[in-house]
Each structure stands twice: as C-alpha cells, then as structure tokens.
What we know:
Layout: H1 42-45, H2 56-70, H3 80-101, H4 103-113, H5 131-147, H6 153-193, H7 198-230
Helix pairs in contact: 2-3, 3-4, 4-7, 5-6, 6-7
Amino acid sequence: MAATGTKSNTAGACWHCHAASSxxxxxxxxxxxxxLAPGTGFFAFFGLSQKLQLDAAALxxxxxxxxxxxxxxxxxxxxxxxxxxxxxxxxxxxxxxxTLRDPVSRVEYLLLRAGVRKEGQTKQQTxxxxxxxxxxxxxxxxxxxxxRQGTADGELSELRHRLRTAQRSFESRLGDVDAQLQDAxxxxxxxxxxxxxxxxxxxxxARMNEILNRRxxxxxxxxxxxxxxxxx
Length: 232
C-alpha cells in the first residue's frame, strides 16, 4: 500500500536530506520517517518475504516495535510532513497486522495481490464430493421450516437431531480443509525457498484458492444450519 497525499521517494532519495533511500521506514542518514515505496505490500511493510507460515509471536513483536516507533505521539512536535506520514503509517501498520495475523486473511491477501482471487468473491459451487450431503441437508432444512408451521414436536426433534449431526460432520470437514490449507502453506514456502518458477507458484496459488473456496462454502453451510437451529 503506497503512501498518499505526501511526498514520495520514487527517486530513491530521502525527502528531507536527499540521501539514498534504504527502503526502510526511516532514513538511515537523518532518521526522518519515509513514505512507502509505491506498491509496497503488507509483507514488505514488516520486512518479510511472502511466506505463509508466519511465527505469530514474532509478528506480534514486530508490530509492537513498529507501533512504538511510528506512533503519532512521537511526531507531535515534528514538521507537517512527518506528522502526516506518521498518521498514515500508523493506520497502514494496523491494516497490515490484522491481515497477516490471521492465516486465512493472510493467504487471501497474497492471492488478491497476485490477481488470483477477487475482492468480495461470492460465487461458490458445491464441491463435487459434497453434492449428495448438501442435497440431503437442504431437504432437511426445508422440512424443518415446514414443520415449524405445526408439525408434532417429535418430528421437529428428529429433524433438529439430524441437522445437528450434519453440522458436526461439516465442522469436521472444515477442520480437514484447514489442515489442507496448512499443507499448502508449507508447499508454498518450500517453493519460495527453492526459488521455484512462475508455473509452479501459479499452480500452488490456484490450489490455495480452490481450498479457500471449499472452506468458505463449508463454513457457510455450518453457519446456515446454526442459524436455523437457533430459531427453534
């Protein structure tokens, strides 16, 4: 995410002392806060590669250190340029941290940046291996909605039992999908270490996108059943 509304360092020089930029948050010569280079992403914001198996504690530590260094209070008596940059950078820091801290939002961000995943992507197809179960689940949901109109309590109780069983089954599948996602993270990180070519990285991204779509579909099923059961 590039800085906006401030001077840029597109020439690779500090806006204040004009020393060659090191690409960090601060000028190595004069110590002034610097604009982010155009196109800087959340991984680069923290000085990280695009690996997906992040150490949460290490990320927390980076966040706290940068929060202290970039906090606007530190620039209360600075010039307008630095005050503006610090306010902007503090907001960017929080956005980057929230995104990278969660494994799912982390991989979604990576895929969005690469153009593999679309923002607000909602179209989901039923995974082929779930077609029969989803068809049966939808029948039970329809029966439950109809039964609420006056069917005997015994039938309602049986339908709720079936739906709770189905919900637990899909929750278990969600756990399996999360395990697949972690395996995909490991494969992606290994590919980066091996400096894999574009075809291999593209295939891994497509695989992760597929897993995310399946995860989103199953998560929505679990939530849908939970909402119906909550209505009684």
